[in-house]
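Researcher: Here's the sequence for the chain we discussed earlier.
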Amino acid sequence: QLEDGHWGRLERTEDLWLRVRKEHAPRLARLALESRSLQDVLLHGKPRLGRELGRGQYGVVYLCDTWGGHFPCALKSVVPPDEKHWNDLALEFHYMRSLQSHERLVQLHGSVIDYGYGGGSSIAVLLIMERLHRDLYTGLKAGLELEPRLQIALDVVEGIRYLHSQGLVHRDIKLKNVLLDKKNRAKITDLGFCKPEAMMSGSIVGTPIHMAPELFTGKYDNSVDVYAFGILFWYLCSGHVKLPEAFERCASKDHLWNNVRRGVRPERLPVFDEECWQLMEACWDGDPSQRPLLGIVQPMLQGIMDRLCRAPSQHPHHGLDDST
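Model: Thanks. This is the structure I predict for it:
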């Protein structure tokens, strides 16, 4: 009788959890976005859009001189093209709002839903965030010396570790989602693909060259962020934004994904320090269980930085170029 009473209970529980994950969580997040946006516009008014700072696939980022006692600000304007993107945006707002302020994450000041955006032709969500100096892509193009690049790597690891400590997986760590202040200290932004580890649905998201191979199977955990950091660290150690040759030769996303699944990774450059190269290889290991924990990566990076930057006369570096 006991067995009969519990037969199928696990399957029913999983079905219920799937409904919560797919339907109820995005709906509640959207209600929270709408109510908080109404509160913000009543308290602080509608923000004024300044000059354009950049744009992505679904949104434009503008300068905003001041809003709600914060200045200067950046304003991310997003026009969700469909229900799925509305849900993603609402969840991004929810995660950014629910996280405590952390020095390695870009802070969200507020949000406003603009029903007259584009002359009334569309509805836009305006996310008002702290304004930083530039993104990492722009920073590397302009030229960064070795010590700031290694410090950025440490900052990014600290930010990812904090997200993981809150049960969240970023899933889109890349150059343009790392912002730098005027002292070249880094903060992680764009939590649009961020999800609680327990709620990841198996959807394929992210930026192709930073995506771990298991993302294509739909079964993955927070080690996908470790993989993405390994690719990011390749750029930081190279000091430039040029695509790795193995990726540049790919004619399409499918070609790239197939190569990654077969184990193709960025090439070793002559300027790479041996320990840096070993760390990259460990982070982008094809077996997620073999990737190092970020709690191990962080002191390794600190040791590399101390060896290469803090005492050059005692510990000459082995090729990691400091001239870019």
